[in-house]
Specification:
Order of helices and strands: HH
Shape: rod-shaped
Oligomer: single chain
Largest sheet: none
Structural class: mainly alpha
Strand content: under 5%
Number of helices: 2
Number of domains: 1
Radius of gyration: 48 Å
Number of strands: 0
Length: 122
């Protein structure tokens, strides 16, 4: 003998009852009715605030480090610019000294030449 197949209305009512039971179980296990729920929530909030505070400290430390590095880079760049300027000045001074020495050598050479010409004229 075969069992009777449940009709559509039977299946719908069974599904509705099951849904209602699930809803009642969920309401019964509602965490807000738990006496320790407020404590757990407070602990979670405290942990989140502490996490945020640590993150803010890390951000502040990172910003301070970036600022320090930027200042250090600026100081190094200024030192490099000063060294380049000093090197350029030294190069210019050396060129001026070489030009002065060359002028002295030319004057001495011209003087020798003039002396030689004066000796030949006599």
């Amino acid at each position: 003998m075969r069992k009777k197949e449940p009709s559509l209305s039977d299946r719908l009512s069974t599904a509705a009852k099951a849904k209602q039971e699930l809803l009642e179980r969920a309401r019964a296990s509602d965490p807000t009715k738990d006496p320790k729920y407020a404590e757990r929530q407070a602990a979670r909030r405290a942990a989140a605030e502490a996490r945020e505070a640590r993150a803010a400290e890390r951000r502040a430390a990172k910003e301070a480090e970036e600022k320090r590095k930027a200042e250090e880079r600026a100081a190094q760049e200024a030192a490099r610019a000063e060294a380049a300027l000093a090197e350029e000045r030294a190069r210019e001074a050396k060129l001026e000294e070489e030009a002065r020495l060359e002028a002295e050598r030319k004057a001495a050479r011209d003087a020798r030449y003039a002396a030689r010409k004066a000796r030949k004229k006599r």
